[in-house]
Amino acid sequence: MGSDLEIKDVISNDEIKNLIYTIRGKQVMIDSDVAMLYHYETKRINETVRRNIERFPETFCFQLTEKEVESLISMRSQIATALENNKFRNKKYIPYVFTEQGIAMLSGLLKNEIAVQVSINIMNAFVEMRKFLLINGQVFERLTNVECKLLEHDKKFDKVFNQLQHENDIKQKIFFQGQIWDSYSLIIDIIRRANKKITIIDNYVDDSILKMLAKKNKNVEVVILTSDKSNIDKLDINKFNKEYPALKVAKTNKFHDRFIIIDNKELYHCGASIKDLGKKCFAINKIEDIGIIDKLIKE
């Protein structure tokens, strides 16, 4: 390789800066990148180090751990390219890295025509990176502090959001015309709260209530109190019980409003018949006076 071609192939300071990384609190370059810059094979660079090991203390050169390699590959795409695709590296070896002092020592041991120019560029790149970090250190520190605060806020937001998502106390909801899915979903949520028994009081139920009750917890007993005007027949009930026992339907004319009772402990008043959810504006309210439940059941 002629000297003119080699000089043209020397990488600029800006390009070299992209090959400098911070590992264990030190600015370093990976051995395969150093080899590429000096037009050597990686193994020749490392052989030079081993032959002159007394000149390369750990402050000059050290080998990465497997964990550090995995972390760098997964987190930093530029290092991933250097470690995985660089033709100067034998992939079965864990890489070494060189500090600024280590590269200065190495440059004095290498014997090719571009070593001097490459060494100058590398040293300049290290100096520029050090100045950049020094000048912008406070900015980086502030950014880190801001990021930590944002992460803390994110955690608090996630905690509150999760609490809202799993909120157990459904006190009052108002649905407007057209909110069919929203109101349907709330009724399903109420049904799923039952562990033992669901009592539904609604004079105008039809087989649509069975589709909702199919989502109840296993072995939860269901009692529907409805009027003669309801459109639900014995065949529907029998088929439902074969798969989702146990459902009982009783006819009564004692009630005007709609109620849902969960485990004889929670009472919900529904302003619309369950089969008409979302057709008009209505509300669902939780009644806190548990004593009313006994009165309703006795009715």
Question: What is the residue-averaged pLDDT?
Answer: 79
| Structural class by secondary-structure content | alpha+beta
Terminus-to-terminus distance: 102 Å
Q: What fraction of the residues are assigned to beta strands by DSSP?
A: 15-25%
- Order of strands across the biggest sheet? 5-11-10-9-6-7-8
Enumerate how many helices there are, as a single number: 13
Query: Biggest β-sheet, characterized?
Result: 7 strands, mixed
Per DSSP E runs of 2 or more residues, the count of β-strands stands at 11
Helix content: 40-55%
- What value does the Rg take, in angstroms? 37 Å
Overall tally of domains: 2
Q: What order do the helices and strands follow?
A: HHEEHHEHHEHHHEHEHEHEEEEH
What spatial form do the alpha-carbon principal axes imply?
A: rod-shaped
* Low-pLDDT sequence parts: 1-8, 78-85
Could you name the key traits of this structure?
299 residues, alpha+beta, Endonuclease, Chain A, 2 domains, four-stranded antiparallel sheet, 13 helices, 48% helix, rod-shaped, disordered N terminus
